Amino acid sequence: MNKQDFIGLDQSAWLFCGAEAPVHSKVMDAVMEYMIARTRGPRGRERNAKTEWACKTNLASLIGGRASDIALMSNSSEAISMAAQAVRLQAGDNVIINNLEFPSGVLPWLALRRQGVEVRIARHNEWGMETNDIMELVDDRTRLVMTSHVSYLSGTRIDYKKLYEQLRDTNALMLLDATQSLGVVPVDIRHTDMLVCSSYKWLLSTHGAGILALNPGRVETLIPTYVGWRSVVGAPGEDRFASYAMHTDARRFELGYPSYPTIYALECATRLLLETGIDNIERHVLELGGQLIELLKEQGLQVMTPDDPARRAGNISFAHADAEAIAGKLAVHDVYVMGGDERVRASIHAYTDSTDIGRLITLLPSVLDSRA
């Protein structure tokens, strides 16, 4: 995966992948392939179906699962909400989240409070989240624990495999949000019950898809409360006004047609990631991230992301009250980072190089002095 294959990276330092991915030229071509398929009538629909299955197959390869256990939805917020309803929580049950979660991983659970479901919140310790801090909140009425693999806020990577092993002796399922990790570090569906991810960040695709992957051992126990024509078995017939049978695999969560332009883009992007190799991407990202952390500390900044490579991925954050202003000043110089929540976040992917890091570090002192 070469930097020159991305559009505009010859002019900018794109440290923004935790929010938006840059455009790869082949991904742009893939979207055009969808438009061409549209001109071919029924043959175009056949191409759409093949591309969708190829996309699911690529995703399955990235997470060590099966294509049939992956549902493609409109966004990760929808996927989390669908998962929240499928667990069928009752009054008196509780779910556990943590205070490093993005709002999409918080709001669906808060909405269940009106049904008598308790929401328990594990608190971070110096921007890190330990599995024991989560497990302390688990009891016999805990039905689900949700956590991000990598925090959008601090860049901390949680040991989700350890957490899952601890939860196996309880009544709780686990939902892992891999939006800030899938595509840049290894992720394994066998160490969670459900996994969600967005399409347009580290997976290098476009907006329009949310990924919901199910552990094969949990597929049949999770039944969505919503149903659409793609959720059910068989073509419409006379009995459709009397009954229906839902698919036995992850398709039960798919209500209607997905965003096929996104599917074409995602199939292409995931193929590129697989060809590059996630292990290779991880090594590059951790090495470059370690260099960035040291350089930020040399400037006296409060780095929120751990030094330990095992506890971080591609996001490197430092705390600052004027984070939005700093990001805005850097953007004027075509250095793109995320500023908000009183932290500045620089995201490193396979295409990032030392030149990008150098541009950021060179500009920061003057930006920090001129933020007013």
From TrEMBL:
GO terms for molecular function: transaminase activity. Keywords: Aminotransferase, Transferase. It comes from the Bacteria. The keyword Transferase applies. Gene3D superfamilies: Aspartate Aminotransferase, domain 1, Type I PLP-dependent aspartate aminotransferase-like (Major domain). InterPro entries: Aminotrans_V_dom (IPR000192), PyrdxlP-dep_Trfase (IPR015424), PyrdxlP-dep_Trfase_major (IPR015421), PyrdxlP-dep_Trfase_small (IPR015422). Residues 14-360 form the Aminotransferase class V domain. The keyword NADP does not apply. This is Aminotransferase class V-fold PLP-dependent enzyme. It comes from Cohnella herbarum.
